[in-house]
Amino acid sequence: MKQMLELNVRTVIKLSEIERLIKKHRIMVPPPSRQTLIRMCETGIFETVTESPGRSGWLVYEDSFVTWVEKLNVGR
Fold first, then answer.
1. Contacts (Cβ under 8 Å, ≥6 apart) of 5
2. Which residues does 52 contact at the CB level (< 8 Å), separation at least 6?
3. pLDDT tens sequence across 19-67
4. What is the residue range of 61's domain?
5. Which residues pair with 59 in a beta bridge?
6. How far apart are CA 13 and CA 39, in angstroms?
7. SS3 16
8. How many domains does one find in the chain?
9. Is 52 part of any domain?
């Protein structure tokens, strides 16, 4: 009998990678500071894996970052 394992795994991105993507693709000029990005995690703008970052830093769900970028482009 075949067993199918269905996993709905959400991709996560380190906050440092988000910072790099914003700069590389010029999503916002000037780019937000690290403190601003952390506040965005704390306030729920970016959906994070946990409330407190721990040793590995902030881990943001990729889909919440993409949603934020798409909202920036709505007004253009």
1. none
2. none
3. 999 999 999 999 999 999 999 999 999 999 976 666 668 999 999 999 9
4. 12-71
5. 14
6. 16
7. helix
8. 1
9. yes
